[in-house]
Queue: 4 jobs
Job 1
Amino acid sequence: MSVVAGRVLIVLSGLLLLLGAIWTAAGFHAAGWTFRGFPQDGFFGATMGFALALLVLGGVVLVVSVPLVGMYVEADMRADGVVLRRVFGRPLSIPVGAIDEIVLLTNLRVPSRSGPVRTPRVILRGGERTLAAYTPRTRFGVAQYLEPLGVEPTVVTDALTPEAAHRLCRGSVSLMERLLTPLALGAVVVGFIALVWVLVTAF
């Protein structure tokens, strides 16, 4: 996923959440901010289920998409270092002299990286700390892509959960990625409940 695509996904999910929130607030305003006075017919009565579904959908997509796209970057390798353009924040520039070690996690198991084709997580380390960890846009030629940095990558092929990767190399995964599995399960449950509620109220 490109940086632009990641930003578009975040913006669209945020707009869904905002639209659902405004729509829901307008309905409760018409009802005097109480459930008892909420209209059962008319525009708000007929569409409030859809508004709440938009609110839940926007929130779920936003919560799930933020950790998914946060680790995707576009890396520009230069003779003096690497420049990382991220979905969130300004570009990060790391000079070659600061990079002591490069680690490639080729089998990181998170919900966003399922399937037979996996792009390795690239970890740039300096001293005892992680300078940057990111997922490049393509899995092909990653080692050759890193050659300008002049450091031979250490390749880890073991299957690693986010927690195991964090223990192996702190900073290799974000906190949200470590929480992604329970968040995804919660999102499915909430989405199912919202869908059932909409169907029950509609019919």
Job 2
Amino acid sequence: MKRSTRLPFLVVLLSVLGGCASAPEPQPATDGGKLALRDGAVLDGQDCGVESPTCPEGLTCASLDLDTGRKALCVDTRAVCDRLQCGRGECVVLESYPVQIRCAP
């Protein structure tokens, strides 16, 4: 490399590395956007997923991003949000497969 091209290259490299070092920290798993079970509520549906057996009639496979971790369970989508609460926002059912249960602002 020529001497005249080394300096600009080093300046760019240091800028990139400096930007990586000051990247924001990820949100903790217990932030206000996570779902949590209401007091006394239970989600006891069977595990489900793309490669799992289908859910019993009347239940739908849903992905829940709970404060305790992500789960895929067979749930009644009409009543699942009654058992959950959000730190901020409201519980919503997003149509997909599996259905996604999330907190919306």
Job 3
Amino acid sequence: MVAITLIALLALVLAQPGKRGDTDFNKDGITDSRDAMMFDHVISGGECETCDSIDFNRDDVFPSDADTQEFYAALLGTHETDPVRLGAGENGFTPVILQRGGFEAFVAPPPTGDDANPGTREKPKASIAGVMKGWREPRHGVIYYMEGTYEYAIRGQYEQIPFGGISRELPLTLAADPQARERPLIRVPENESFALRIADSSHVRVQGLAFDCVENQQAVIDIAGTVDDILIEDCLMKGGSVGVRVQGLDQRVGTVTVRRNIIEGQRNVESHSQGVYVSNAQRVTIEDNVFWSNGSRDTFCQGMYLVHDSLSERVVRRNWIGDPGFAGVQARGGTYEVHHNVFDRCGNALGIGHPMGFGHDATGEFYENVILNPKAPGWGIALQNMNQTVVRDNMLFAPEGVGYMFIRENPSVGGDVRNNRGYGFEKFLEISNPAATSEKFADNGNVLFRAVEIPKVPWNVLRARAMRQWGYDHDAYKFVQAVQRVNPW
């Protein structure tokens, strides 16, 4: 309370009505990431006698999300008039337009929805199963979820898609009703149930829905069997053990895109838990998502776990991966393109290759990612069993004397690790397996600076600046560019 009072008095002295504040917040003559760090410190209750007013927009209301939003918009070169690409609630969800020739059906929570109804807007069904009852083949069209809360409380009960669409151009789409004021919410209070399962079905789109599950032993959305051409877009997923699980089992899953989703709070205290799990699947793209606080340190957990299938093509780009139980991304087998992601407060931000081998080498390119504030054990990038893999132009920031920029666990074939820059880590390279010493990359344009300048833009700050409410921040790419600007080579 005393700190807030002092801040308020300082703001009254420094405020200039009608003018926006100064992005050189700490008044050291330079606008850089130190200003972001100090702004966050002060607006959270800290003190700074030399800093500018936290009433950044000079509206005499402070501290406020509006001040935070405008400060970071100015610092990162965005503006109030910039369009928000995707948002929750007031910003709307992805609109879905029925294509010519497709069917249209509506579902609603009981008692409005009843599977005895014809499935029109006036008389909706109660479930996807009710709509698909009697289907014997794939169909093209849209099933709209009307506004409300759908609850599956019986063990093992979930919505399953037994038939998909006809083709990539004629898909089956599950989407929010365009007339809904809020996202339809699917709740799963049972700890052994999915929310939605797509099994042996192709050409399926899931867009604009919200899922709220208890911490459990199942995925929120499960994609399994022989499937192809699946899109999960603009969904909110909270709870469960895995946000989206893509698992080929004995079959082959192909062409799956997970785009612009919020995946938060996946917990399975008995086993693995991840934001996304991919196994025996190829042509998988994970882009523009936010992964937040997935996994528990008591179990094996991470933002994304991609494993099994050395022939796969896996793209991970422009995601914000924050505060996982341990790892940000584990890329354990396959051909990868991983770039322009932001890793925030990860125990191990990026793991490349399988530490135990098992013949699952990782190949491809990992480049221009930003790694911030690693927590214990404080590993930036772990390298093991790579095969002709390029790791380049990544930027890693740690508090002074914390953790390892690289940890080398197993040898690789043709690893090209170059032009990576670290700040503050205790050690540039830790060799945990003597067999890994045969590879030398410390002099390949890589450098570790002991003095650290963390371009800290915390999760809540980005959320307030970009989206104005809980849910979205899809500015990972823009943030990476900003970090590169304020920390030029």
Job 4
Amino acid sequence: MSNDMFQSEQKVPYRRLEAAAQKFAKVVIPTDLERLKNHQINIEKYRRCRSWELLHKEHINAGRTVQQLRANMQDMETLFLKVKNEDIPALTKVLQPVKDMALASIGDFLEIHSKSVDELREESFFHVPNSVTEKEASYKSNSEIQIDTPFTEDVNTSESWNTLEKDLLDLNDIINEFSHLVHVSIFFTS
């Protein structure tokens, strides 16, 4: 049996995958995106309140949501490998809107938080706490003076944001690759 025959036997009509496609489009991906939106709101709130520990935890939780979203997007992508070539347009019609929604949400999340991190760095770069006066500073050695900025006080917060940002960019790449594969598949089946 040739490899092409074997592959075509494994592919199924869209109607067999329709329930899975609808579940991704109406439940799975929108739920992940809603969680990501809630993390975004919490991250902004904790940043404004300067709750660095809570901000760090929220970055970690948002990272987990991004990992789950990535896994779900990859699972959704496998549907295109299982569906018969002539049914790819039907599957695309169902999944393209949710894919576009995911891209937009990730883009918004990255844009808003990149701006807020930049603002935070600018406003806190030379911030010295009121508790350390010039007189106290003159009596202490340089190693004893602590500058109270969020990025020196809690490096974990900054690192967790960097990790989250990388995960979001990776997810964005996955979605774009997914889109490219769909368009290539449609082109070759036409």
